[in-house]
Amino acid sequence: MPDANIAAAETLDAVIIGAGFSGMYQLLCLRDRLGLKVQVLEAGDGVGGTWYWNRYPGARCDSESHSYNYTFSKELFEAWEWSERYPQQPEIMRYLNHVADRFDLRRNIRFGTRVVAARRDEAANLWEVSTAGGETLRARYLITAVGCLSTANVPRIAGLESFAGAWYHTGQWPHAGVDFSGKRVGVVGTGSTGIQAIPVIAETAAELTVFQRTANYSVPAHNAPLTPEFKAWVKGNHAEIRQVTRSTPNGHAFVIANRSVWDVSAEEREALYEAAWDKGGLQFRATFRDLLVDKQANNTAAEFLKRKIRGIVQDPKTAELLADIDHPYAAKRPPIDDNYFATFNRPNVRLVDVRSAPIERITPTGIVTAAGDYPLDIIVFATGFDAMTGPLLALGIEGRDGLPLAEAWAAGPRNYLGLQVAGFPNLFTVTGPGSPSVLCNMPVPIEQHVEWITDCIAHMRAKGLARVEPTEAAMDGWVAEVNAAAAATLLPEAGHSWYLGANVPGKPRVFMPYAGGMARYRETCEAVVAKGYVGFAMT
Ligand code: NAP
Questions:
Q1: Which of 172, 213, 507 is the best mutation target for the ligand 1 pocket, counting ligand atoms within 8 Å of the beta carbon and taking the most?
Q2: How far is CA 104 from CA 12, 78, 453, in A?
């Protein structure tokens, strides 16, 4: 068995960057199934990836717990029991630590180790991976498992450095937590994260000011402890749950209704939306099959949700600001919540519209918008991430002839199947741009990618092949397919969405995830293999 303390000079079969869901399973597959020498490098001091860093108040997964886990091992699936409908961040951390222990993964993970560069030694056909600590590891394969939402996007607001209070980004939350009691807190951002954090922060802050640029839909999560009956059902139905999550377009354990908005009367539609609202969660999207492809159909859901906001929020001006949503429902990642809109009925919470009166600067005492001054003790940036490409470009990867990945992707990401880039042989990106990734329940694409990469490496070794990379033509074809899949939906209509890179100033506006659905993506990958890895050059 390979040992944890692999000498830096020793050549490895693979370096994996990241020890979240992806990196842990990739390690297990390469080490235990293929018997390779593998080293995982992880910047954090523990496993967990995205969940290691995102420990903000209210952090909880929006996927239902029975579908938010690995399914490769029936024994693992049956050994673990989630306590609530949606797992909270600490429980997900317990799960991932349980997996690390169960499969003895830690001995091949080096924690507190940030990768700062990865260069090709083309003559030796190796990747040279450099860490912030000054070490260099050499490996045949380099696999990035860095997640899609791990590079915090802190807006560049003039004067931030002068702020005399404390400020935090939700994706880099202090492990010791933050005490809001008696404080005047400002939250910037009303995406999935802000919508989860705001109700929790409001419970202890003296005053909470929410700075909203784009109003957002949200559906109640209706989180609750799982009943013993449901837990027993989950344990007894590993195969069925796995089958459903592998067959739905988004990898969730619910099936999208096979009916159009226009198949039912207005009264029936209202009743169906009402029932979906009462059930709660991301499956509100599954009420009709055409919500994401037909704008008029989408309008019926959007209007229903806006009426709900107006019904919950008592102050009419605040309700109007919250319901003034400018994009189709679910064209941005739809949040789900626990008392989000009702939180604005609390006397200690106010909403500030920074769309009509943008934030101008931060002073030592608070935030100044075009409409006024807001004195604050703490600022929380729930402002999202430099998504998908950000974590990859931060690694300093250079391919053949020293070509930086940042240069290869200057006009936006280009790759094949989301997995490989021409000019970067033997580099695999788990949930890279062009993968269905963030449009899915993440463990499902992760398991598929990791298994596909493992099979590809096994194939290479069996055939005595040394290098794999896609052809330019295959990349062009995949980029066209990713664009076409997005264009067939309403997703690109949310022009400010992070799916498009629009949240980061200067980032190319390219729709990044593959919107054709996980099931179709899986079939495509299987067909590529069946045709002898068509689109890949293996030498
Ligand atoms: P996000 O969706 O990108 O939302 C960021 C928010 O910050 C938006 O409201 C944005 O406004 C605002 N913002 C950014 N810069 C700003 C500025 N300079 N001034 C004012 N407002 C600004 O980020 P997120 O909420 O962290 O969510 C990111 C993704 O993480 C989600 O879409 C989801 O995929 C994932 N996530 C999942 C869960 C879960 O499963 N439970 C929870 C949280 C997050 P604009 O819209 O105007 O840009």
A1: 213
A2: 19, 18, 21
